[in-house]
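Give me structure tokens for this 378-residue protein.
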Amino acid sequence: MKVCKARLIAGLLPVILLLCAHGATAQQRYILDDFEAASRRVVQPLSTADNLKYLWGLYLGGGPVDIVTSDHHDGTHSLKATQSSGTDFQLQLYTYTENLSGWTNAWQYARQFVNNPLMQPSGGTPAWPLNQMNRLRFWIKLPPGYTGAFPDHNFEFGTYIRDLVTADSLAESSNQHYYHFLDLRSTGEWEQVIIDTHPDHQRGTSGGIEVADSPQTPVPGYNYFDMLTRFYIDEPYDAQLGDHLVDGFEFYQETNPENTAQIRSLHAVYIPKTNGIEVGWTRPATEDSVNHEVRYAFSSIHQLGWANATVPANSLVTPQGVGGYNSMKWTSTAINVSGKSVVYIAIKPQNATLFREIAVPVGPGGPVPNPPTNLHVQ
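Here you go.
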């Protein structure tokens, strides 16, 4: 893959006009945590409770939690959270700062911690651009024992959204607590998860009720991730004992028009020993009879075009559940990925024109190729 070349010009705001070899515009990315600092960041220095003292901790699961070098997705470090007791695993980003120099005693917004190993309350550098970041990606590797719950889900990514009026002593406004459903299983590999702005559920509502895309109380100039305070990754039903690894948490801007209305909570993994590619997502709870189609390519299908992507033999995905049992999955061992580093998988409901895409690493060449960030053409 040809690398885009540009030079950072100090003192200028980020622009997204740099063109890569495949023609895509550069996307802005903000690292929330890649754990390369080799120690967990402290939010409450006087606390003696592990799940309150640190930005990352286990609310449920026993522990311990630590940053390790023994296994990682990228860089040289990852976060390891061990389920040592109980049946509920809940790893949280805990953003309540207390007695932390320079910070108020309050729930902070997650965006204040990006690109920010020094823990400055003003946030990362360059400044977070409001109303632009629309994806949150991370990587997860599970201990043995997870088999998935298709067409249901076994993991929940819980978010707390607060407007600009609600007191900062609260993590959320008016029951703005949402769940993004994931159906993950143990593969021995790192799985990519992309959280978008379309949750599957809101606390206290019926499981079959469809939640709107970007359901937060509207605030002009702010989006779902701008108002995100804290989040957690939860396996609430039958968590497996052992080490859960996470890495590479980043917010980014997806500039291509994508179908988050019908395809959300997207995740994928490549399993080298079987040449297996597994992709999972959730659909609207109100679309029990809408089939989805899958296509693939070795370059971005957003640039290539849906009609020019390859149609696999098992391209049709039929809903297997009803209502809130809305997980969808597609698997293949038939794609020849020899000599390739990434395969792009696209998903489109048959009653739609827009699709979603996920880039799945399948060989040497590093992690998913991200467009350059905050670079400027000279």
